[in-house]
Amino acid sequence: xxxxxxxxxxxxxxxxxxxxxxxxxxxxxxxxxxxxxxxxxxxxxxxxxxxxxxxx
Length: 56
Fold this sequence. Notes:
The protein is mostly beta strands and 56 residues long. The chain has a single domain (3-55), classed as Alpha-Beta Plaits (2-Layer Sandwich), CATH 3.30.70. It has one helix spanning 43-47, and strands spanning 3-5, 24-26, 31-33, 53-55. A hairpin with a 4-residue loop joins strand 2 and strand 3.
């Protein structure tokens, strides 16, 4: 199960360098997680200041 980033994302970028498989990238309005690449490790969840990342 992949994680997703909801609209609470403030595009701070804290999550992107934490992803060990580089599944997170900057989107138009917020960061996005590639579900095909995400390994569900949860590293991004721990660093998100707005708690915008949740399991899908």
